[in-house]
Specification:
The complex is a heterodimer of chains A (about 290) and B (about 325). Chain A has one domain. Helices cover about 70% and strands about 0% of the residues of chain A. Chain A has about 290 residues and is mainly α. With about 325 residues, chain B is α/β, with parallel strands linked by helices. Chain B is elongated, with a radius of gyration of 24 Å. The chains are: A mainly alpha (about 290), B alpha/beta (about 325).
């Protein structure tokens, strides 16, 4: 079945080639990440409706929880629910919005654009890293909306600027770590819709069964144990500490509640250490045929 | 001559579950040549292109593009190829220019280089007016041109075009052909797949016909036509002349068919140089004047039918160009 083609027609002198000036390695990888992060940010700019998850929802949640729940919750050890709630609302909003990573990757995989990327000599994981960094930007927007709404309705942190910033930063780190988990979810789900469906089932309980919105002490024992060991609770407790806000969980004996900052950092690092390599492997598997 | 081959595939096989997409395909394209890979839907064309462009790994066989193995040296292959896939592979939410700059940057061009090259290509493909519109507003023909431009950012020496005109309206199709001819004039090596026989005939130096994952024929367009049935001579006389068929007889192979009105004559011939002139001169010498003479080559549709025993599928009209908005 072999075939031989005729001698080549003399190729006309090739036009000067704009050969990629390639410095393989870190520089090019960094550039690929920057380019793809920029691309994802452009998506957000062009389709602001996508942003409602991190703009409208945080404002709505903040108002609803503060005025509806806040009227019924009495904090052990006293303090205002508004002051207690803001860290919890950050937890709630950032946890659920990390789903955006799953949805975004999943819809990219469903379009032809990934095939195009794969024919380029770019650094493959840049697709994932670029996505996670763009989603970190949306998490920043999300926390800004929660913080601003909180300030408008009377939230008052009782700490220095650096400490308050640390309270936000520890949440952003956690949200970044979670988005790698969500990246894995995006890689194994068939469509953006199913990614969103599955994501909600996992992330919503994760956010709710915690000390984010109500103190855990009156929960049934099983729920309470789960809540005290839930990474979301650790981060929320750490954040309340940094904000200088009412923080009933510090009296709980569970290790993460006693060492909330360390626990938050450990959780975040562990999630990244597990899910970033896993997402990369899943991405390779998903895009190899 | 191996070192002159820009694309070289040996015994490529690929199955998807029980479906055999490629059943041992060999391809060779010398530098600067255009190979047309012709076959109906599902023949294995796209699978072959996906393997050659590093998107898919063959189950067996090997392939080299620009001298590099497509599996072991994928990155080197990627630096030498431009690809225009059958399905749109650009970002719908970005503008044409943003897409090109992004792809240029991801191919290793510096920002300024990428911008300059994007502007050149937008100009070359007549997309300047649409350059800063998002792709959602592009028509099918504009998308295809942009997709082609996206494969050219680094001026790769080898290009793969997978069904570049499928689904385009006739005007966009002819325009795409012009664009492709322009590229070839630059000396690139090109592998083009198509279900359109006239497209392969128009653009390719050589044609490989594949069906059910196998190469069933290859050669130049003319060779393929000769392989499968000869040419036909068709004449229209100014007025009926009973001796016409006799005069024609020595030049044809087989019987001369005369139409009911006696003015039109048809006969199988072996196409040789100057045949039409010779026939007309002979008729003229016999005092017979000719209004029209045509030497018809068999179409590639005839060729395909002769090779496979089934006609090529009708192009799918369902996905004719629709401006998505």
């Amino acid at each position: 079945m072999s075939l031989t083609t005729a001698p080549a027609p003399a190729a006309s002198p090739a036009t000067p080639r704009a050969r990629p000036t390639r410095s393989r390695g870190a520089t090019q990888r960094f550039r690929d990440v920057v380019v793809l992060t920029g691309r994802n940010l452009l998506h957000i700019k062009r389709e602001p409706l996508q942003l409602s998850d991190v703009t409208v929802q945080p404002v709505l949640f903040t108002l609803l929880f503060i005025y509806v729940f806040g009227s019924g919750v009495v904090l052990p050890g006293g303090g205002s629910y508004k002051d207690f709630a803001i860290a919890g609302l950050l937890a709630m909003n950032l946890t659920t919005s990390s789903m955006g990573t799953a949805v975004g990757l999943s819809s990219d995989l469903g379009s032809g654009v990934i095939d195009r990327f794969r024919t380029l000599s770019m650094w493959r994981p840049a697709v994932l890293v670029g996505r996670s960094l763009a989603d970190l930007m949306t998490a920043v927007i999300c926390s800004a909306f929660v913080g601003a709404t909180g300030l408008l309705v009377g939230w008052r942190p009782d700490a220095g600027v650096a400490s308050v910033a640390a309270g936000f930063a520890i949440f952003l780190l956690f949200s970044y770590a979670l988005s790698w988990g969500c990246a894995c979810l995006g890689m194994v789900s068939k469509s953006a819709e199913s990614a969103q469906g599955i994501g909600l089932v996992i992330l919503f309980p994760l956010a709710i069964v915690s000390n984010a919105l109500v103190p855990t002490e009156h929960m049934p024992v099983v729920l309470r144990t789960i809540a005290d060991w839930n990474p979301v609770s650790a981060v929320t407790t750490a954040s309340r500490k940094f904000f200088g806000n009412p923080n009933p969980s510090v009296t709980i004996h569970a290790w993460p509640m006693q060492h909330a900052v360390l626990a938050s950092l450990l959780w975040s690092v562990a999630l990244i250490a597990i899910f970033a390599p896993l997402a990369t492997a899943l991405y390779r598997r998903r895009t190899t045929d | 001559m191996t070192h002159d081959l820009m694309i070289e595939a040996r015994g490529l096989r690929k199955s998807f579950g029980p479906t055999v997409a490629l059943d041992g395909i060999d391809l060779e394209v010398p530098a600067g040549a255009i190979l047309g890979v012709l076959g109906p839907n599902g023949a294995g064309k796209t699978t072959a292109v996906r393997i050659l462009t590093t998107l898919s790994i063959p189950d067996a066989g090997s392939a080299r593009v620009a001298g590099h193995d497509v599996v072991r040296e994928a990155a080197a292959v990627q630096r030498n190829i431009g690809v225009t896939a059958q399905d749109a592979t650009l970002d719908e939410v970005l503008t044409g220019r943003e897409n090109l700059v992004m792809i240029g940057r991801l191919s290793g061009l510096r920002r300024a280089q990428a911008r300059l090259r994007a502007a050149e290509l937008l100009d070359q493909f007549d997309l300047v007016d649409a350059a800063d519109r998002v792709l959602k507003e592009y028509s099918g023909g504009m998308r295809r041109r942009l997709d082609l431009a996206a494969g050219l950012l680094t001026r790769p020496p080898v290009l793969f075009l997978d069904e570049p005109t499928t689904g385009l309206d006739p005007t966009s199709r002819v325009r795409m052909w012009e664009v492709i001819r322009g590229l070839v004039a630059d000396g690139v090596t090109l592998l083009l797949t198509t279900q359109y026989l006239d497209e392969a005939d128009e653009l390719a130096d050589r044609i490989v016909v594949i069906d059910h994952g196998r190469v069933i024929a290859n050669g130049t367009s003319a060779e393929l036509k000769t392989q499968t049935g000869g040419a036909r001579l068709e004449l229209t006389l100014s007025e009926v002349h009973t001796a016409a068929a006799q005069v024609l007889a020595p030049f044809v192979e087989g019987a001369v068919h005369v139409s009911h009105d006696g003015r039109r004559l048809r006969a199988p011939v072996r196409a040789t140089t100057g045949l039409a002139s010779t026939v007309v001169r002979a008729l003229d010498d016999a005092g017979i004047t000719v209004d029209d003479v045509e030497l018809r080559q068999p179409s590639l549709d005839d060729v395909f039918f002769a090779l496979t025993g089934h006609p090529t599928e009708e192009p799918d009209n369902a996905d004719l160009e629709v401006a998505r908005s």
